[in-house]
Amino acid sequence: MKINYKALVLIVMVLAIVGCRKYSDDYKAFLDNREVIYPGLVTNSNYNTGNLRVQLFWNPSPDPSITKYSLTWNNGADSMIVNATTHDPKDTIKVIIPGLKEYVYSFKVVAFDASGNRSVGQEINNVRVYGPVYKTGLLNRSYNLVNPYELNPDGSVKVNFLNGDSTNLSTTVKYTDNAGDIKEVHLKKRDNSIILPNYKTGSLIQYQSYYLPQQNSIDSFAVATFDDLPLLCNKSLFAPLRLPTDIGSAYGWELQYLWDNNLNEPGFHTPGQTFPFWFSLDMGAQASLTGFKIYQRMGGSLYNAGNAKKFEVWGSNSPAGDGSFDSWVKIGTYTSVKPSNKPVGENTREDIDFAAAGEYFAIPAGAPAVRYIRIKVLDTWSGSAYFHALELNFYKQNK
């Protein structure tokens, strides 16, 4: 049988066209014979974390038909509507979502036009929200145990802290001034010390630190409570305790100059003697001491002459009247340290600065509370059997 190929090709093409026409409109049954419209997408969507809340933000779509945005989270169980107030992509739309739990969320942003058409939406993932669990792990910034305080000639006190960690924002320091008023000053993260003007000696100093969990956080978190700095004992209560075996003073440098809040000469100077020798003082009140600081005589005497190199500290609440060590308890034996470890007579800038700030010595935990102090000098930096110093501070627990 002879086949007409041209006729066959024509028949196939006709059938194909008819078939295409039949199925090309089938999608309309699923779209209810309406055209699908997708509003424009937002850009640069992101978030700023907070305390049981979050701030979402994005640059709006330039599509002028958009009237609102829908925000959903918790797998769509929760939602919020945000009106489209601008269509300028250079603007930023921000919205705060409150009442969240401490959790990691995913949010979806969908744009709508007036006809109810919706965009495909965009997700903002891994949104961490902070709360009480995060807060309970926060600690107040540490103060400088070795050098907690420095006295200034104008009567103010400088309080020293260690470096804050990367999330530390600031630290509030609260104290009492000489008028009896409660004052607050604020230590910035980048600073390691702060001045307390007109500080009332012996009064409580407290501090509380604030943190930002993330750099972009809209909320800061405070440590739950204030901590107490060790108190600077009230030197206005101090008085010489002259017992029969105590060494005296020389050259007009009297014992009471050790607590006159003056770092200039004169201080206290003893006459020549043989080691060991000692002197005593009354702090005016019993205290649980945490440490003390000795300010050396400076200049040519620095780490030299009669500045103490090795000594003991003793405490008592009822000193023996004969000047003996009966009823005295040894608190500790201490050795002065020179940072550079250079020979006597050679001082570096580090040595000078360290001594000028006062050398701090810690008192071991568990030491008894005492009112009276006796310092027993065992050796000096030059080996000469006399002692001098400019100032003496004692620090106590807040009890």
From TrEMBL:
Pfam families: DUF4998, DUF5000. Keywords: Lipoprotein. PROSITE patterns: PROKAR_LIPOPROTEIN. The keyword DNA damage does not apply. SUPFAM superfamilies: Fibronectin type III, Galactose-binding domain-like. It comes from Mucilaginibacter aquariorum. Residues 259-396 form the DUF5000 domain. It comes from the Bacteria. This is DUF5000 domain-containing lipoprotein. InterPro entries: DUF5000 (IPR032164), FN3_sf (IPR036116), Galactose-bd-like_sf (IPR008979), Ig-like_fold (IPR013783).
